[in-house]
Amino acid sequence: MKKISQKPENRRILVVDDEPEIRQGYRRFLSPEKIERIESSRSAPAQAGDAVGAEGKDGDGPVSHFEVTEAISGDQALEIVQRELSVGRRFAGAIVDVRMPGRIDGLQFMQKAWEMDPNLLVVLATAYQDRSVDEIARFLGARFQDQWDYLNKPFTSGEIIQKARQLVSSWNRREREHAYVEQIKLQQNAMVAQEQLAAVGKLAHSIGHDLGNIMQQILTKLELENGPGSQPESRDERRIRLNEEMIEAVELGSTICQDLLAFARRSREVAPPNRIAIAAPLQKSLRLLRQLFRKKDITAELALDESAETVAHEARLVQVFVNLLTNAVQAMADGGKLKISLRKAAAGGVDFELSDNGPGIAVECLPQVFEPLFTTKGAGGNGLGLTVCKTIIESYGGTIAIESKVQAGTTVRIHFS
Ligand SMILES: Nc1ncnc2c1ncn2[C@@H]1O[C@H](COP(=O)(O)OP(=O)(O)OP(=O)(O)O)[C@@H](O)[C@H]1O
Ligand SMILES: [Mg+2]
Asked: Average pLDDT of 206-219?
């Protein structure tokens, strides 16, 4: 993890009091060096009193050195806070007289100051006749309850120095914590962005795969349109049928592209799934692959309950069925028979089954077939078809499984919820 850059500590304190002697006292306690310098330049003996002397004895002089700015009223203090903020400078804390003449008192000043800088910490200097701690708490509100402290007048130099130290150290600690949290957020955002990039990469891979399939189908149909027909139909009939099949393929490709665009925009523009009859996308897929079946001498025995429904996107189920049927066709190099069934399950949902009598899947390969990029087809396969199917089916709360016997065939089972 990258280290947070160490900013110099903010030791700036704003003192707000209408009485000049009190302000002078604050300055003497909190910024003694400056006072001493001023006084010695006037050739006057130092009058810093206990505080200055005590700090010297403690040997921790720098700890109690603060940058003090004075204001004589709440209004002037507000102007100072605003002016400093406009040049990017903030006070760590303010020591504020509660009762002050003028338009606003110390509490009203704090309310307004927090509107400008909500992190400002404050010590309120109160006299017994001023408001009680409970009254102050009610006035300043729960949001700022841990951002103020108070000191009863009259106070000693030690009390004021210690309060100032607390203001400064807790303001700087809060800032460090804030910077740390911000840094963690940035790192998390970077991680999310990276994951999204990886997801887009995966999606691009699977879309390339699906669009490739579709292009291949269109190409086959275009070739057939111009070649000699193998079916008892007129040239025009063949053209119309092939055109319809190509339109379906293009529509599927277009849906896949829309999904990609919606995903890239990170929007929820993908329409919600509908309750659909599963037989519809299944039959569409069979139509798309009809030529391939014919070419490879593959027949299909169908037992479809046309009323079996699920909630899904039709185009996505076409993607699933096309992938499964393509696998089966590719496996049955010398032709064969497919059995396809769709029936409502007794316990609810719908069961789909696709069996081929191809060569089956080797026992050692079976556990890997759903893994991305697993293929036994060399350059002829991407190893993504079943991964795509599983992702889609599971996104609708369904399950998909494969059973296979070498030399006997393979069965894919899907349960739609
Ligand atoms: N019906 C099946 N008969 C025999 N093997 C199958 C069958 N279906 C899948 N397989 C095996 O599972 C592997 C993974 O299938 P998957 O569809 O994920 O990828 P692929 O077909 O190799 O490539 P892609 O589908 O990306 O073009 C296949 O390479 C194959 O070994
Ligand atoms: Mg495949």
From this structure: 85
